[in-house]
Amino acid sequence: MKYNPKYLPIVIFAALALGVVLGGMLNFPNTTDYLVKNNSKNKLNKLIDFIDNEYVDDINTDSIVNLTVDNILAKLDPHSVYIPPSEQQQVAESMKGNFVGIGVNFYMYKDSVAVIKPVDNGPSAKAGIESGDRILYADKTKLFGRKLPSDSLFSKLKGTIGSNIELTIYRKSERKKLKVKIIRDIIPIKSVDAALLLDGNIAYIKINRFAETTYSEFMTGLTKLKKQGAKSLIIDVRDNGGGYMEEAIAIADELLPNKQLIVFTKNKNGNIDKTFATEKGSFEKGNISVLINENSASASEILAGAIQDNDRGTIVGRRSFGKGLVQREMDFADGSAVRLTVARYYTPTGRSIQKPYSKGNEAYFKESESRIGNGELYEKDSIKITETIKFKTKKGKTVYGGGGIVPDVFVPLEVEHGSEGTTYLLQSGILGNFVFEQLDRDRKSFKGLTFEQFQSKMNQTDIYFSGFQNFIFGNGLNLNFGKSKPIVKRYLMAEFARQIFGESYYYEIILKEDAMIKAVLVQKP
Length: 525
Description:
The protein is α+β, with helices and mostly antiparallel strands.
């Protein structure tokens, strides 16, 4: 398949923006679920009965109902959505923060399930599974040569806590088959990717979504970094599409003094519910910076808005997505659910950051893509703000409503990474696939290296840079990395580090030349 490079930035940008769509679906209060029951025979129910009983051909009426529900919700707003049973479990697990399984990150390499890295201290790691192992059988179920979709693979490897599964694996490094018995256990799905110390005393915490465990993960990281001497804090919510607003509120509470307003919501009846910071607060003093971009949405914007409106810190980056709607989940008996918008939320100054959606859902979600074309990702003056929707913070700073959080310090895209096509490519799964294949060919050359030795090895060679360039050309992408060599090499090294050492090492490498981090360091008193 050949790709037109003219459209590559848009294609990959859309893939990244998918996280905003999913996160936006999930920005609802994590409170009581509501069971939807309607026993009255309305017109829609009768129509379905007529089709079931009288229509000349056999029809799957469930699919008709699902289509009808989707069409009804599409008339409301972009974030009122129907979640079918097949998707509800996966979404629920992601937001719960854990699932029961064997604990491996895997990659479908050609026609087999290849282990990228076992989860540290997880069931597979304890049983001796290694990076590069191919999983041939799960009990007696054949997994290779079938091109099974990911959801089918997950279902074979998941199970109940304490249950046994026997894996037949092929270990390429030893050229032999092994049978490994694994006891399934709870596997965490982390929402905090990294918590590390930068530049001596600056804590950096990266949050990828707001799940049930996010506040707990955040506090674990912050506590550790404070013990290491952290005096300032950077919270990175770039590409964080949202999640449970309570988790964002709980984090804001740790950063704001007692009785400062964090957020308030207003429903269709005009009822207002205000949430204030409490007396607790582990980081009420010390500089705070929040990093945002065009894919930071909903709960991310609640956190950024609370910090900005209370003059508590500096927002750095580019205008956020612009989602100010609150959903409530209501479950159906068949395992499906509807997430219905029940209120709007407002930042402490009283601004709604919800962008318009009157032109339909497609135009709404593509608005972020249009920021490439109108220049907003490159020049602060190109940001479209509504001058009539101005608000003032207590210290007199002007902030704007009507479409996302406008940063205090703007960092353009091209300064951050180079050409936008290269930017989004390096953040896509293509890079990870390439790195896995390179490790799979010569994993022994990295075995036993310390992190410092690994960095030295990667800095002294261009072999992987050249290989990745050929890999891209071979896949029909006409992107020449000649002018972006330092950036590409940095991302390659970071991805190798992630697959060999773990997630935090990826960020340790990437952040050294990150333009938003540099912007924060310049601001440091």
